[in-house]
Amino acid sequence: MEGGNPVAPPGARTAADVVTPALVARLTRGLTGSGTTVSHTPLTGRKLADLPESGPEDVAAAFGRARQAQRAWAAVPVRERAAVLLRFHDLVLARQSEVLDLIQVETGKARLHAHEEVQAVAVAARHYGRKAPAYLRPRGHTGVVPTLTKVTELRQPRGVVGQISPWNYPFELSVGDALPALVAGNTVVTKPDTETALTALWARELLIEAGLPAPVWQMVLGEGPVVGPAVVAHADYVSFTGSTRTGREVAEGAAARLVGCSLELGGKNAMLVLHDADVEKAAAGAVRGCFSSAGQLCISIERLYVHESVADAFVERFVARTRAMRLGTGLAYGADMGSLVSGRQLETVTRHVEEAVAKGATVLTGGRPRPDIGPLFYEPTVLEGVEAPMAVCAEETFGPVVSVYRFRDEDEAVALANATPYGLNASVWTRDGRRGRALAARLRAGTVNVNEAYAAAYGSAQSPMGGMGDSGLGRRHGSEGILKYTESQTVAQQRVMPLAPSFGMTDEKYAEFMTRSLRALKALRLR
Ligand code: NAD
User: Fold this and answer.
1) Is 298 a catalytic residue?
2) Distance from the CA of 264 to the center of ligand 1, in angstroms?
3) Could you point out which of 120, 126, 372, 420 has its C-alpha 20 to 30 Å from the C-alpha of 464?
């Protein structure tokens, strides 16, 4: 494993150069708080910023401001709201180096992995900027009596959306997910994770520069178990991304208030390497799939099932590629993997690996923390011989650890891949695209990538992304990703004659008339 710091020569920029007191003052201007919370950079463990901590009354005030702004924002023509997103797309690409620095110092991830967030946000901004007017347009439907009953389905914004987001993709999972809610005419109150709040605040500042009225997107900061439930208590709809455990609590809070919610939760994602896979490409894909953002990616691969006929060749190449990865802390391209985000993550990763080894698993490469690089670094790790009682077998590690298993036939592979309560993402590698797509349909996962690990499905913003089973409720992206932020409203106008006996008809004549009408509608295929 290459260590050291391949991209941080002496004199290179550090977190202190990126997060200056002036930047913190600018980004937190206008945020109220009854206390102070502190964020740190995982790259060195040093303090990054003092941030205002919202109390319940600050959350209530943020919702009040958002509610006050909502009617005027919904009255802005949808094309003008969409134009904000299109301008934002251009600004994100032009100013990407600023947010790449912030993402890196707040999460510790490699710059290439931070750039995935820039790409995802740009794709979402462009997609909803162009397509929102079509997704939201009023739709005509056949009425109860065609032509006499004119029916239109409208899409009304829900009001104020409460958004709770995690630390692992702080740019994409704050602004990327807020864009469809905003363009649908909602205002939004976001609670980002405190450790990555500056990235979210920077995104808000840039969206305002693109033309979003400032009150339309509010931010509240603070402890999840305090501020999170306060957000759920005020929201007209809740958009949550985080762990399955917290997701259940959020769902209970939303259910008690009879407001809807979408939950993007955890996963234990499987990759299947079939007998006819190109093992070199599959090995390179597995490195991307398992170790992007140091495995702290909900759709990353933690279980690798390989057909026995190609297992030796695949494992040799995969382990060699993993061993050659360069770990680094530099605020520039060049490192293949960065840091874990917190002591909690490092503890889980260490515990999963140590327990597996103690119970008989083999470390093919990695398996050690690397404090010589940074306090929270851990080597990309490949395990073999993992079995059911080991935590790493079934629980989400959310770190750079993958277990390799061998299978004999595709039925066995499908059964193994599906043997989890989660159902977020999966990956299939084969030279036969048709075989790969057919197998994909048998996997219980919200997204399946053929000959890619996760980026093909995630980056295709017109298509829904989300989890089955314990991986969540609802979807982001595509029509579902915007229509969830609306309520359908049916407006039916009755013309010429009422839906009741009229023109002097008796009840009996009216019943006969309606019976004839229903038969005629059937004959004319109008119903
Ligand atoms: P987490 O559930 O601990 O925290 C997520 C967010 O919820 C944070 O902002 C946190 O402050 C807040 N929170 C904490 N307690 C809360 C409560 N009681 N009520 C309301 N909000 C509360 O998750 P995490 O450790 O920050 O994130 C990692 C998890 O997120 C992993 O399980 C990962 O798979 C999942 N994730 C899923 C997706 C997806 O799209 N499916 C994307 C990214 C991360």
Assistant:
1) yes
2) 9
3) 420
